[in-house]
Amino acid sequence: MAEDDQDRAREREAEREAEIESEMERVDQDPDQVEEGSENLGTQSADSGTPRDEAEEEGDGEETPGEGSADDESETDEGADR
């Protein structure tokens, strides 16, 4: 039973390493640059350099006043046809 658990753990680790290597090659990076034990690689929680809250405060992702979404424009067009 313990051997089965060890085999599964080794298999999961080998799959994880293969996925990391594959992803690094896909993005044209050297797979050897990955730090051992790094859990952030390949996850959405990986550090992007700028915290999300700071980027939003700087105005990234905000709609410019006067610019509506496509839905807003279609409602205006529908009203003009009536």
TrEMBL record:
- Here the segments flagged for biased composition (Basic and acidic residues) are 7-29
Q: Which domain of life is it from?
A: Archaea
Q: Ranges of Acidic residues compositional bias?
A: 54-82
Specify where the region named Disordered lies, as residue ranges.
1-82
Q: What is this protein called?
A: Uncharacterized protein
